[in-house]
Amino acid sequence: NNFRELGANIIIDGGPTGKASAGELIEAVNGSGLEHVIILPNDKDVVLAAEQAAESDPDFIRVIPTRSAVSGLSAAMAYLPEGDIDEICALMNESIELVQSIEVSNSVRDTSVNGIDIRVGAGIGFLDGELVASEPSLAATLLEVLKRGDVSQSEIMTLYTGDGATPEEIEKISEMTESHFPSLELDIVEGGQPLYPFIASLE
After folding, report:
1. pLDDT tens-digit readout, 151-196
2. Which positions fall inside the Fatty acid kinase subunit A-like C-terminal domain (predicted)?
3. DSSP 12
């Protein structure tokens, strides 16, 4: 797990919904034995629960409002194991402002979101948590999300492959990135995340 490698002490899966409640977060951190705990929600729907948990003990529990796994990884990489807690949190907050997050998965139903018609099985792409694209394949969806992102301000895209990512799709993404964004460096990492075959960061 990438977060374990970056020093995370506690990882909560959030149960069937993948979204932990304030009570679950408080219960998890209270037994940590640590002086301070920094929560990375890594989901826009968990930020509020994390902030509610922090209200129970604002000095002990701090929250970096990461809205995706990508922004969570960026914050985790900015973490310093020693130093003033306020300064550490400030650095982590700065780091998430500098990264754009992309998430790509498959739609499980026909629907329409943000004026985008989506067919079951099609790719759906999110930019900083907002659905912005849907194309027949995951690779084409990721390319469409990139076109909507601020790629001109980015030097590197880190692509984390998860459940459902195939070698063919990875190769297509590599080719499309090189063709459409030749100045963008692509770094591919085996993320192993569920639900999203591909998540990516633009930095």
Report:
1. 888 999 999 999 999 999 999 999 999 999 999 999 999 988 888 9
2. 2-203
3. -
| pTM for the model | 0.81
Who's near 88: CB < 8 A, 6+ residues apart? 38, 79, 80
Q: Partners of 23 in the beta sheet?
A: none
Q: With the CA atoms of 65, 77, 201 and 170 taken in that order, what torsion angle do they form, in degrees rounded to the nearest 10?
A: -130
Tens-place pLDDT, residues 3-62:
888 889 999 877 656 789 999 999 999 988 899 999 999 988 899 999 999 999 999 999
Residue 138 in contact with residue 198, Cβ under 8 Å? yes
Joined tokens for residue 197: 């075959």
Domain boundary residue, one of 97, 113, 133: 97
Q: Strand 37-39 relative to strand 61-63: parallel, antiparallel, unpaired?
A: parallel
What gap in Å lies between CA 5 and CA 28, rounded to an integer?
Answer: 19
- Decide: 172 and 139 in contact? Cβ < 8 Å: yes
Report the alpha-carbon angle 39-41-46, nearest 5. 125
The two three-digit tokens of residue 21, written as one number: 């409640």
Domain extent, residue 155, equals: 100-202
22 with 33, same domain? Answer: yes
Integer Cα distance of 192 and 125 in angstroms? 18
**Beta bridge pairs of residue 156:** 185
